[in-house]
Design a protein that fits this description.
The protein has about 350 residues and is an alpha/beta fold. Helices cover about 50% and strands about 10% of the residues. Strands 1-2-3-4-7-8-9-10 form an eight-stranded parallel beta sheet. Helix 2 packs across helix 3 and helix 8 runs parallel beside helix 9. About 45% of the residues are buried.
């Protein structure tokens, strides 16, 4: 299907907000600058994922290097999917949450530069998201500004936590305030799960770990009152927000009966209507439920391009949910377009 055919059948062009980029140059430089730390991180990945999963993941990623690095390959794949626009963010292995400050800020600056260069090769088709050194809160605003104002990116991608920094951490308040002020996107995409070796078989590190991390991170944001203090935030959660939208009733119950769970002003479920969620949920019924609890305005098309845990045909997946035409149009394009409409220009 061509982009034109997809647009004609939905009433709008199609935007994919969850698509990845690899930066081999950045990783090679990180290995050069901090070989012992890279080795320690690789050992953690082996323990978290297990050798059987790593044996599968290595060839899988290797086969997708062209789509992860070459703009021509990316555009050809987008055309085949019927996707007009992609939001491009780095593969989360480029977060380096263990990096000391000097290395972490170099990574952030270089990543923002390279993402901007990549999307500039097709500015009518690609939108970039940068990164910030989440584990070093005192430097985050600087690199948020670098991404959004310095490089003209639409926002930044962050993990669910980094070191001792949870998303409820008071040290992140200037970051949330600045992100709201800039009107930029903050794309929440976990990397790794703190359950570690408990998920080291059957690919549980991804199938269970990613949804867990999304749910934990969003719960930190909600229960800590971050969304009360910064109502203008544009948080986009990968993987449909993980388990949280499905189990939000339990959060509401805790908020009602537990004083220690009463850090936000309203029931937790009400905040789902202030967060955006991508469609990488792999089940049409789950997509319909997500729209029911969050609202038709809060769900955006995502594919996790080009990894095997993504949606190879994200447009067809949305259509398979049997949504009304107006809702499908908002999910496929309208909501993502609205998210970018009020961003402060670079």
């Amino acid at each position: 299907m061509s982009v034109g055919e997809a647009g004609a059948s939905t009433g709008a062009t199609v935007t994919d907000v969850h698509a990845h980029l690899l930066l081999p140059h950045v990783h090679a430089e990180v290995e050069k600058r901090a070989p012992e730390l890279v080795a320690e991180a690789a050992d953690l990945e082996r323990r978290r994922n297990g050798l059987e999963s790593l044996k599968v993941s290595g060839p899988m990623v290797g086969a997708r290097i062209p789509k992860l690095t070459d703009v021509r390959e990316r555009l050809a794949a987008m055309d085949a999917q019927g996707v007009a626009t992609q939001w491009v963010s780095v593969s989360p292995n480029h977060f380096y949450p263990w990096a000391p400050e000097g290395l972490a800020v170099w990574v952030a600056g270089e990543t923002n530069r390279l993402v901007a260069e990549h999307v500039a090769q097709a500015p009518d088709r690609l939108v970039g998201l940068g990164v910030v050194p989440l584990q070093h809160p005192s430097r985050i605003v600087e690199y948020l500004d670098d991404a959004v104002l310095g490089r003209g990116l639409a926002g930044v991608e962050i993990s669910s936590f980094a070191g001792d920094v949870e998303l409820s951490d008071e040290r992140l308040e200037p970051f949330w305030a600045r992100a709201a002020e800039l009107g930029c996107v903050v794309f929440l995409h976990p990397f790794g799960c703190s359950l570690d070796e408990r998920l080291d078989r059957f690919y549980l590190a991804n199938t269970v770990g990613q949804p867990v991390e999304n749910a934990v991170a969003l719960s930190h944001l909600i229960f800590a009152g971050v969304l009360d203090r910064h109502p203008g935030l544009k948080i986009v959660a990968a993987h449909g927000g993980g388990y949280l939208p499905t189990a939000i009733g339990r959060s509401d119950h805790a908020w009602r009966v537990r004083p220690d769970a009463h850090g936000c002003a309203h029931e937790p479920s009400s905040y789902l209507k202030k967060i955006w969620f991508d469609t990488v949920v792999h089940d049409p019924a789950a997509l319909r439920h997500l729209i029911e609890v969050a609202g038709a305005s809060q769900v955006v098309l995502g594919s996790d391009f080009p990894f095997d845990m993504g949606l190879d045909d994200p447009v067809a997946f949305v259509r398979s949910a049997g949504l009304p035409d107006d809702v499908a149009g908002r999910v496929l394009a309208g909501n993502a377009e609205e998210l970018l409409r009020t961003k402060v220009p670079a």
